[in-house]
Specification:
- The structure holds two protein chains of two kinds.
- Chain A is an alpha+beta fold.
- Chain A has three domains: 7-53, 2-Layer Sandwich (Uridine Diphospho-n-acetylenolpyruvylglucosamine Reductase, domain 2), CATH 3.30.43; 63-173, 2-Layer Sandwich (Uridine Diphospho-n-acetylenolpyruvylglucosamine Reductase, domain 3); 180-285, 2-Layer Sandwich (Enolase-like, domain 1), CATH 3.30.390.
- Helices cover 35% and strands 26% of the residues of chain A.
- The longest helix of chain A is centred in the last third of the chain and has 22 residues, at 264-285.
- Chain B folds into three domains: 9-36 and 499-641, Aldehyde oxidase/xanthine dehydrogenase, molybdopterin binding domain (Aldehyde Oxidoreductase, domain 4, 2-Layer Sandwich); 39-141 and 217-265 and 273-305, Aldehyde oxidase/xanthine dehydrogenase, a/b hammerhead (Aldehyde Oxidoreductase, domain 3, Alpha-Beta Complex); 308-484 and 645-795, Aldehyde Oxidoreductase, domain 4, CATH 3.30.365.
- In chain B, helix 14 (524-536) packs parallel to helix 15 (564-591) and helix 17 (683-702) crosses helix 18 (755-770).
- In chain B, a hairpin with a 2-residue loop joins strand 27 (598-601) and strand 28.
- Classes of the chains: A alpha+beta, B alpha+beta.
- The interface between A and B is medium-sized, with 26 and 30 residues.
- The structure holds flavin-adenine dinucleotide.
């Protein structure tokens, strides 16, 4: 459980970081909180020759409100998310999810950018970003681009992030007033990745669902955005029948592998069950239901 | 002669802080400050580091090992293989069970992650760099993973080295993969009882392979002093003296040239009893290089190569009358020992003390048959916080009694009360061969039932069942057998399982005591000081207890199987009493009184009927200055204690669970544990032991398992997957006690460390199965992960 040899770099600006990333190519790795990367290095599943630590890079950390959007710096820690009064008020699903990620020690170091950029299907934040319709701001040598979280994930540890790009920040459209949101995660113990988890956001008006988004964690090669589940809720009073239909849609979309968390059958069923719970909870929190 | 100001009796007793006092642990001051001294804290000048190349196959021939690239890594000094150890005859080592185990793979690998080569380097990183570059060429052989197929006629032969042997240390065997057959009890009478009985039940019950997983993994620092030829090994040894003798037998070094030191140990739970390739390789590497060599296991190494526990495939049966009175017990067990029999038990007991299977019940007749087999899995079979297969036995009988209760429709508490050995039956001879020393099972169970309002819980359960909710109530009324043990039936490599204590009283009245046991978190420095404090009237604070250094401690067999208090604790009390006897003579001399006129009074001898007295503190000084003419100076002695019997602690536990019928999640709502360990030395230490043991039991019951796939890959051998509960998952523990002293122990104490693990596991399973009992479910396999419980929910369509 010892990593291979590497050189450590600590740039102070995004430009310096990008230059190092460019210079070392596939020999280099960005280091944020280190709580996914360092375990991989200790197992020698990753053996980067150069670590580019972005913790000293100015401007990558913090949560701010902009017109119609919430912007979170990539190097913002899970603890900061958990303790943000602004998020608790405007986008409570983020702190709710953060509280279900790992344990306090990991959350004190682990970053939201690392969680989103990592590409592990077990990470919890990608599904959250999908239901919030967030975009990732990626900067590379030739400039900046934005990629929707719903399009970012391609497979296990493969994402739209180019080798020479850095995730700078995450832009979340300000959630609709009165929207209810919830994240439900079933796990074996604290610090465990999900057996299955589901994120739901929904808006209600006059007792009917006007907008919904549902995504699931760790039951596929990536987090899965499930429009069919949201469609099952649209226009309904989100009653038992609608919730059952949404859960069915989720189970149809889920493609878990069997592992120590459970069989394919079980994890599929749990994706449905977590969806039911997330919807019920989001509904109870939505204004106008 | 009084040298203290006048203290009241209570003050004097409080100052001493002896038996019965809930004192804080002496050890904690250093542990909570991070000032413990564990083996990985030991750094010697010029120390090198070793790491293993391990097998990626479960079963394969090793065709070649190419070390060239590894040797080019900067810092790598040597790559040791079986070929290098062979001239020293160190490539294989004897096991505590009379088998042989490969130190480094000799032509063949027998399980995944088996040690193949030992890379020695100037630092840990370089050693691992070297490991990565050693190229091993394998020729795969068919793996044998399922023990049920081990004895099939055409089964792959795992141990070519012993394939032809008639026995491998534990009696006759009948197949190359067979290790032993062990039977106990009266087979004919048992079969007859089953034939005649109104009711019989049978259940296949697996106690899955799990691992003690101490927080500190195994490791050592071996240091050969080339000048005086003395080998010192610091390591995670639960039994340092045994290790010294074994090292001497293996290497031919004189025991006087070997010093084994166990520093602070971060939990053992049986994992640190045996000898491992890492110890041998580090020692060999130190001898060859002339440098100290450190070897520390990673978590994965620990979970996949050093001793596992359990893996007992059991079929248990009870015969009973219509009222649930048990008439006979029968068990057949297939024991999976992995690739080498490194079972760590008293050697005459290939299945440990499994014949404690009668538990707390008066069962007239019984028969047990255990067959041990080899498979292509990590070797072992250690007692994970239990006294030698007692956990497996307790699990089986506690499960079977529940199954019988369901079959006869007798309440699960009532059926226990109907079958208990009664208080007046002690000493009680069990049909499977033990003599239980003391116990009062009905009192214990009744106290617990009242405390949890058992009747009320059953009513609540009935109401919940009406509503389709799942609530279970689990009872476990276990009896342990601990304190190995009487030398007539317990030995390890021929060494009787006595234990020892040496006490020296210093002139100013403080004490150092050394024992042959070794604490790994049990609090010996605190508890044994309290025994001496009471016996000698010297404050606990002034008594230092030392263990673990074979150059200073008297010979002992170490700490496991809850044997420290029953055996070394007894030696401690007896050594202290010998000292008090001498002190009495000195007191008589100083007070110019007759020995017969002296009486002991907390911390002093006083002359009966007068106010003349002398404190132990003053006697200590006199022992070095003013002794009777015919007496040697000094105040010290050693006691070697051979216990006349084991001790039989017991308990009554109740566990209440609620089950989420959609996810299979089990919520432990209440856990009430009453333990009877005889005389209670330190109630706080006892509570700590119970909390720890119950937490392990919870881990085992709800999630711990070392799993292999069909090709022999070990799955989930890391703490992300292997279920070590955190404070978040751990239920709240309520503890209680009764006191039934041990009649043959000097202070009446029994063991406590293992009861909660042994008794806790069946309480959890019984509670979970009880939640489904009304639907005809009699058993559910451990571990009760959410997915496993959900399978039952799904089969019964309860999750719809
Ligand atoms: C015990 C434990 C339990 C855990 N449990 C959970 C859990 O329940 N749920 C969960 O979601 N996670 C869990 N994690 C993972 C944890 O949340 C990590 O912190 C997170 O996955 C990665 O974030 P990081 O800041 O630590 O990134 P790092 O580990 O530093 O990096 C992860 C990857 O992302 C890349 N990267 C990081 N930042 C950027 C960036 N700004 N731009 C481009 N690439 C970047 C790195 O190069 C690396 O490839 C757990 C971790 C541990 C150790």
């Amino acid at each position: 459980m010892t990593p291979g040899a590497f050189e450590y770099h600590r740039p102070n600006t995004v430009e310096e970081a990008l230059a190092l990333i460019e210079r070392f190519g596939d020999e280099g790795k960005v280091l944020a909180g280190g709580h996914s990367l360092v375990p991989m290095m200790k197992l020698r599943l990753a053996e980067p020759a150069h670590l580019i630590d972005i913790n000293a890079v100015g401007g990558l950390r913090g949560i701010r409100g902009e017109a119609g959007a919430i912007v979170i710096g990539a190097a913002t820690t899970q603890s900061e998310i958990l303790n943000s009064g602004m998020l608790l008020e405007k986008c409570p699903i983020l702190p709710e999810a953060a509280a279900q990620i790992a344990d306090p020690q990991v959350r004190n170091c682990g970053t939201i950018g690392g969680n989103c950029a990592n590409g592990d299907p077990g990470n919890d934040d990608p599904a959250i970003m999908m239901v919030l319709d967030a975009s990732y701001v990626l900067r590379g040598p030739i400039g900046e681009r934005q990629v929707s979280a719903r399009k970012f994930y391609q497979g296990v540890y493969t994402t739209a992030l180019e080798e020479n790009e850095l995730l700078i920040e995450i832009r979340i459209p300000a959630p609709a007033k009165g929207a209810g949101m919830a994240y439900r995660k079933l796990k074996r113990k604290v610090g465990d990745y999900a057996i299955a988890a589901a994120a739901a956001v929904l808006s209600m008006s006059g007792g009917r669902c006007t907008d919904a988004a549902i995504a699931i964690t760790n039951v596929g090669d990536t987090a899965l955005f499930v429009p069919a589940a949201a469609n099952a809720l649209q226009g309904t009073p989100v009653d038992a029948t609608a919730i059952a239909a949404a859960a069915q849609a989720v189970m149809a979309a889920a493609e878990p592998v069997e592992d120590l968390r459970g069989t394919v059958e079980y994890r599929t069923a749990m994706a449905g069950q977590m969806t039911r719970q997330a919807i019920a909870s989001a509904l109870s929190r939505a204004v106008g239901s | 002669m009084s040298d203290t100001r006048e203290m009241t009796l209570e003050e004097r007793e409080a100052t001493i802080g002896g038996i019965g006092t809930a004192r804080k642990r002496k050890e904690d001051a250093r542990f909570i400050r991070g000032q413990g001294n564990y083996v990985d804290d030991i750094k010697l000048p010029g120390m090198l580091h070793g790491d293993f190349v391990r097998s990626s196959h479960a079963h394969a021939l090793v065709k070649s090992i190419d070390t060239e690239a590894a040797l080019k890594v900067p810092g790598v000094l040597a790559v040791v293989t079986a070929k290098d150890l062979e001239p020293l005859n160190l490539h294989w080592m004897p096991t505590l069970a009379g088998d042989m185990a490969a130190v480094l793979a000799d032509k063949k690998v027998h399980f995944q992650n088996q040690e193949i080569a030992f890379v020695v380097a100037t630092d840990r990183y370089a050693a691992t760099d070297g490991v990565q570059l050693v190229e091993v060429e394998y020729e795969a052989l068919p793996p044998l993973i399922d023990p049920k197929t081990a004895l099939d006629p055409g089964a792959p032969v795992i141990r070519d080295d012993v394939a032809e042997n008639e026995e491998v240390g534990q009696g006759k065997r009948h197949h190359p993969n067979h290790i032993f057959e062990w039977q106990v009890g009266d087979e004919a009478a048992t079969d007859a009882a089953f034939e005649a009985a109104d009711i019989t039940i049978s259940e296949d019950i697996l106690y899955p392979r799990c691992h003690p997983s101490p927080l500190e993994t195994c490791g050592c620092v071996a240091s050969m002093d080339a000048v005086n030829g003395k080998l010192t090994v610091y390591g995670t040894f639960q039994a340092p003296h045994v290790i010294r003798t074994v090292v001497s037998l293996i290497t031919g070094l004189e025991e006087s040239k070997i010093r084994i030191v166990s520093p602070d140990i971060g939990g053992g739970f049986g994992n640190k009893v045996g000898a491992y390739p890492g110890y041998i390789c580090a020692a060999a590497a130190s001898i060859v290089t002339g440098h100290p060599v450190k070897w520390i296991e990673s978590r994965i190494d620990n979970l996949t190569s050093t001793a596992f526990a359990r893996d007992y495939h059991m079929t248990g049966e009870l015969a009973a009358d219509k009222d649930g009175k048990i008439l006979a017990v029968r068990a057949k067990v297939l024991a999976d020992h992995g690739a080498f029999n490194t079972h760590a038990q008293p050697m005459k007991w290939p299945a440990g003390l499994f014949n404690i299977l009668t538990g707390s019940y008066d069962i007239p007749v019984g028969h047990v048959k255990v067959d041990g087999v080899y498979t292509n899995k990590a070797p072992g079979g250690v007692a994970y916080r239990c006294s030698f297969r007692v956990t497996e036995a307790a699990y089986l009988i506690e499960r079977l009694v529940d199954v019988l209760a369901q079959k006869t429709s007798v309440d699960k508490a009532e059926i226990r009360l109907r079958n208990f050995v009664q208080p007046e039956q002690f000493p009680y001879k069990s049909s499977l061969g033990w003599e239980y020393d003391s116990g009062d099972y009905p009192t214990a169970l009744k106290k617990v039932l009242a405390a949890v309002d058992y009747e009320g819980l059953r009513r609540e359960q009935a109401e919940k069942r009406e509503k389709g909710e799942l609530m279970g109530i689990g009872i476990s009324t276990f009896t342990e057998i601990v304190g190995a043990g009487p030398v007539r039936n317990c030995d390890i490599v021929g060494l009787g399982m006595f234990d020892s204590c040496e006490i020296r009283v210093h002139p100013t009245g403080s004490v150092i005591a050394r024992l042959g046991t070794k604490s790994q978190g049990q609090g010996h420095e605190t508890t044994f000081a309290q025994i001496i404090a009471t016996e000698l009237g010297i404050p606990s604070d002034n008594i230092t207890v030392e263990e673990g250094d074979t150059d200073t401690a008297p010979y002992g067999l170490g700490t496991y199987g809850s044997r420290s208090t029953p055996v070394a604790g007894a030696a401690t009390a007896r050594a202290a009493r010998k000292i008090r006897e001498k002190a009495k003579k000195i007191a008589a001399h100083v007070l110019e009184a007759s020995v017969d006129d002296l009486e002991w009074d907390v911390d002093r001898f006083k002359v009966t009927g007068s106010d003349l007295s002398i404190t132990m503190k003053a006697i200590a000084m006199a022992a070095y200055s003013n002794v009777p003419e015919d007496m040697e100076h000094g105040l010290e002695t050693t006691d070697y204690y051979n216990p006349p019997n084991f001790t039989y602690p017991f308990g009554a536990y109740v566990c209440v669970v609620e089950i989420d019928r959609f996810t299979g999640d089990v919520k432990v709502r209440r856990f009430y544990a009453l333990d009877d360990c005889g005389t209670r030395i330190n109630p706080m230490v006892i509570d700590g032991q119970i909390h720890g043991g119950l937490t392990e039991a919870f881990g085992i019951a709800l999630g711990q398992q070392i799993i292999y796939d069909e090709t022999g890959n070990v799955l989930g051998a890391n703490l992300m997957d292997y279920f070590l509960p955190t404070a978040v998952e751990t239920p709240k523990w309520e503890t209680d006690f009764t006191v039934t002293p041990c009649p043959h122990h000097p202070i009446g104490a029994k063991g406590i460390g293992e009861s909660p693990n042994v008794g806790g596991v069946p309480a959890f399973t019984n509670a979970i199965v009880d939640a489904f009992a009304h639907l005809g479910v009699t058993h559910m396999p451990m571990p009760h992960t959410q997915g496993a419980v959900w399978r039952t929910l799904n089969e019964l369509s309860l999750n719809k």
